[in-house]
Design a protein that fits this description.
118 residues; alpha/beta; 5 strands
């Protein structure tokens, strides 16, 4: 499974390992900003896309809207699962309302069932 994370503050792989997730089962790439995000998504072709809500220069919520539009325009293949990650509940709810499949507090990311499904 290929995981692409756009997160500017915390090492996603370290958060997963701290939650006893065997990260050796996945290919994980992290981008520390959202510059050229669509190109990076196209190149990496993630199964799971993690989007931090509060990330420069483009917030995850705005990036999600761009992703959805690119998918609708057949300019991007939608990742199987898109997950909003934020430490703010309102931000996570906004991500789900905008089209994310799920959202979770980033510090609880290891509790998602997707890590045990694959």
């Amino acid at each position: 499974m290929r995981v692409l994370a756009f997160e500017d503050s915390y090492d996603i792989e370290a958060l997963l390992r701290a939650g006893n997730i065997d990260t050796n089962r996945f290919t994980i790439e992290q981008q520390w900003d959202s510059k050229e995000a669509i190109g990076k998504i196209k190149e990496f072709k993630p199964d799971i896309l993690l989007l931090d809500h509060f990330m420069p220069p483009t917030k995850g919520l705005d990036l999600l809207k761009v992703i959805i539009k690119a998918v609708e325009d057949d300019d991007l293949v939608r990742p199987q699962t898109i997950i909003g990650i934020s430490s703010a509940g309102f931000a996570n709810q906004a991500m789900v309302s905008a089209g994310a499949d799920n959202a979770i507090t980033k510090f609880d990311i290891a509790t998602l069932e997707i890590w045990s499904e694959n």
